[in-house]
Specification:
The structure is a single chain. Helices cover 58% and strands 0% of the residues. The protein has 19 helices and no strands. The protein has helices at residues 18-42, 54-66, 75-104, 111-143, 152-179, 188-200, 203-227, 235-244, 276-284, 290-294, 296-299, 306-319, 321-328, 347-350, 358-362, 369-382, 392-401, 440-445, 447-462.
């Protein structure tokens, strides 16, 4: 047989194929409304510029959205996620090719392309999806790491993806066996399954199974597409969008500056005080728990869980959409507080954050957990004067003396006594300084640190700096 002749009949055994397009319309409408519903909430947030520097942002999406660099850091989870992710891409491309040939009459599925891609590669990646789902199921149902969130929704997502993949192979096997496809062996999984069906069923029985199975498979796929935006599977859209709109100026932990001259309030204690990017962050969370797993406070048994703060805020956001709308429209209405022992964020957990930004560095979809925690703390301190008793002496010293060490008797330049060190504030033109050694409160005012700072200054002088 000539490989150039290799092909198969599109939609073999399927009548009324127009019906699938009739079903596609409500599917697209339901799915589209799910995404629009989220967007409708995001736009209620305060403005922030996150669509500049398109080249850098596109590179970030290619690295971490398509390339899965952060996801791959955990080998087991990264492996099965890559299997499912790449499998979905390949199967989507294959389905698109079928639709193009069927709808526009372009003879794409033939020859080497049909054999190598549409048959062999598609079969392999379809199998990888099933293996990936199996690995994910084992992790979720057997090994059960504490960092995950265990819900019925997550279980059903895995079950439905597995059934979709399995029924796809059943359809392929029934077609190969019933038509005695001469190119069937190029589809290894379907070909192996077809041998078993061929021994048990007649051609007419397999044809009937194929017909009913095809419509079941289609309905399940469309149902999953319609349902996905209302589940954690919405991250297929929200994750790349969130990566694209990441903070490029130090996305490992930079904080928003406060303009004390113009700010009407300080910090955040309501969803309406967040930016649209903050609200997008909440919907982008995939519940993977990597942020909490690397949080040093959580590791030692404290109440702080960056993942739970994001998820609780997300639940509050969707439960209080009407309140958000009234605030955005400047209509009378109360802002629902987010800091409350019975609300989304517990004050105790806020003060346990060390602002190390490990959560942000670990997040595969670039959620900014730490700035939200800091903004909530800023509200407690600057609006409510509410902070742990242990901080009272520090805050009082900052207000009265400009540093956090109430017991020190040192000035900020005592450490430099006897050293050949220029003080920036004493220079005629500070702009002439090429390098500035910022000593900070800890280096200048804590006696045990002063020897280290002096040694560093002496080394810099020896180096001619």
């Amino acid at each position: 047989m000539n490989a150039a002749e290799a092909t198969r009949e599109i939609l073999w055994n399927i009548s009324y194929s127009w019906l699938m397009y009739a079903l596609l319309v409500p599917t697209a409408l339901v799915a589209g409304f799910g995404i629009f519903r989220k967007y409708r909430i995001w736009k209620l947030g305060k403005p922030i510029l996150r669509f500049d520097r398109v080249g850098e942002r596109t590179k970030l999406v290619l690295q971490h959205g398509l390339g899965q660099q952060r996801t791959a850091r955990q080998s087991y989870a990264g492996t099965f996620h890559l299997m499912i992710f790449t499998g979905f891409i390949v199967l989507t491309i294959a389905t698109t090719v079928v639709a193009i040939q069927h709808d526009f009459g372009l003879q794409i599925m033939k020859g080497s392309f049909y054999l190598y891609f549409q048959s062999f590669i598609v079969d392999v990646f379809g199998a990888l999806v099933m293996i990936g789902v199996g690995l994910a199921a084992w992790r979720r149902w057997k090994s059960r790491p504490k960092q995950l969130v265990y819900t019925d929704e997550a279980t059903w997502i895995l079950v439905i993806i597995f059934i979709i993949s399995l029924t796809g192979f059943f359809l392929e096997a029934w077609r190969i066996a019933a038509t005695d496809d001469p190119w069937g062996h190029w589809s290894p999984v379907g070909f192996l399954m077809s041998g078993g069906f061929d021994a048990l069923l007649s051609d007419s029985e397999m044809q009937a199974l194929h017909l009913y199975g095809w419509w079941f498979h289609l309905t399940l796929v469309f149902g999953f597409i319609a349902w996905a935006p209302y589940t954690k599977m919405a991250h297929v859209v929200t994750a790349p969008l969130n990566i694209f709109t990441a903070n490029l100026d130090g996305y490992g932990g930079s904080l928003k500056r406060i303009d004390f001259e113009t700010a009407e309030s300080f910090g955040v204690n309501a969803l309406a005080d967040f930016t649209w990017k903050d609200l997008l962050d909440l919907d982008a969370c995939t519940e993977c728990g990597r942020c909490t797993a690397v949080c040093p406070a959580n590791t030692v048994g404290k109440a702080l869980s960056p993942r739970d703060i994001i998820l609780d805020l997300r639940n509050l956001m969707h439960a209080s959409e009407a309140a958000l709308r009234s605030v955005a429209a400047a209509e009378p209405g109360e802002k629902s507080p987010i800091i409350d022992d019975d609300s989304a964020v517990r004050a105790e957990a806020l003060w346990q954050c060390t602002t190390c930004a490990a959560c942000m560095e670990a997040c595969p979809v670039f959620i900014e957990q730490m700035p939200k925690i800091v903004d909530a703390r800023r509200y407690l301190v600057m609006e409510e004067a509410d902070f742990p008793e242990e901080l009272m002496a520090t805050v009082t010293s900052l207000e009265q003396r400009g540093h956090p060490f109430p017991g020190t008797s040192f000035s900020r330049i005592d450490w430099a006594e006897g050293l050949d060190v220029e003080i920036l504030g004493e220079m005629e033109d500070p702009a002439e300084a090429e390098i500035v050694l910022w000593v900070g409160c800890g280096g200048a005012l804590v006696e045990r640190n002063q020897s280290t700072v002096r040694a560093l200054a002496q080394l810099l002088n020896e180096a001619g700096i």
